[in-house]
């Protein structure tokens, strides 16, 4: 089962699958001696869950609601990927003009990029990067390298400049993000400190769930604020 999934999801682990099972997203059969047996439908169901998390950054609760609705024969939401009876492909990377979608933001990336890599991949110049660093929007690691998220941040800021928003205007975003990190850290750190073998997987899921909820809340608050200002 892992061999079938790891071609598309190289980071999937037994602990991750067991966590998803514990959350009710997949229910494999059992042999008389208690070993799990994953049918092809179970593998497709897992593939949908992992894709929905990675590509759409959906919380597990929402994914489970979609799967439950599909199991009952209900039509899926028009804004969500179609749950599997027959699994459908989700959005391909690179859509939205190359800009990041929420699912692009992962927590366990190991790729290290030089400054030249960042400039080339983000399509920005050295002066723009200097501004991003000045206002804390992009930060290299201790060894001086950048991670792929820095490219996504730079691309996003570049797109915002087309609306007249400059990096200096975005300092509040950096400050707000730092405050959110401090809050979420208090929640997830105790989860990671558990000594059982599934602690890492549970911690990663809590991070993804909270990050997705944070993005959703921020979006809703901004939309509500804009409506209040414009009278829309």
TrEMBL record:
It comes from the Bacteria. Residues 1-69 form the HTH merR-type domain. Coiled coil: none annotated. InterPro entries: DNA-bd_dom_put_sf, MerR-type_HTH_dom, MerR_fam. Transmembrane segments: none annotated. Residues 73-107 are annotated as: Disordered. Keywords: DNA-binding. Signal peptide: none annotated. The keyword DNA-binding applies. Pfam families: MerR_1. CDD domains: HTH_MerR-like (cd00592). SMART domains: HTH_MERR (SM00422). GO terms for molecular function: DNA binding; DNA-binding transcription factor activity. The keyword Metal-binding does not apply. PANTHER family: HTH MERR-TYPE DOMAIN-CONTAINING PROTEIN, REDOX-CYCLING DRUG-SENSING TRANSCRIPTIONAL ACTIVATOR SOXR. This is DNA-binding transcriptional MerR regulator. It comes from Amycolatopsis umgeniensis.
């Amino acid at each position: 089962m892992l061999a079938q999934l790891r071609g598309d999801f190289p980071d999937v682990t037994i602990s991750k699958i067991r966590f998803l099972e514990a959350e009710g997203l997949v229910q494999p059969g059992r042999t008389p001696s208690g070993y799990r047996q994953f049918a092809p439908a179970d593998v497709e169901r897992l593939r949908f869950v992992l894709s929905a998390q990675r590509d759409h950054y959906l919380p597990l609760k929402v994914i489970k609601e979609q799967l439950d609705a599909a199991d009952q024969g209900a039509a899926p939401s028009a804004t969500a990927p179609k749950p599997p009876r027959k699994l459908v492909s989700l959005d391909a990377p690179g859509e939205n003009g190359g800009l990041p979608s929420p699912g692009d933001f992962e927590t366990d990336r190991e790729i290290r990029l030089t400054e030249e890599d960042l400039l080339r991949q983000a399509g920005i110049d050295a002066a723009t990067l200097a501004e991003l660093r000045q206002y804390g929007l992009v930060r290299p690691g201790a060894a001086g390298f950048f991670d792929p998220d820095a490219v996504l941040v730079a691309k996003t800021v570049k797109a915002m400049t087309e609306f007249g928003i400059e990096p200096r205007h975005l300092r509040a975003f950096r400050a707000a993000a730092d405050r959110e990190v401090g809050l979420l850290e208090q929640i997830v750190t105790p989860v990671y400190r558990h000594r059982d073998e599934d602690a890492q997987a549970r911690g990663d899921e809590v991070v993804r769930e909270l990050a997705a909820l944070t993005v959703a809340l921020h979006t809703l608050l901004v939309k509500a604020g804009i409506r209040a200002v414009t009278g829309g």
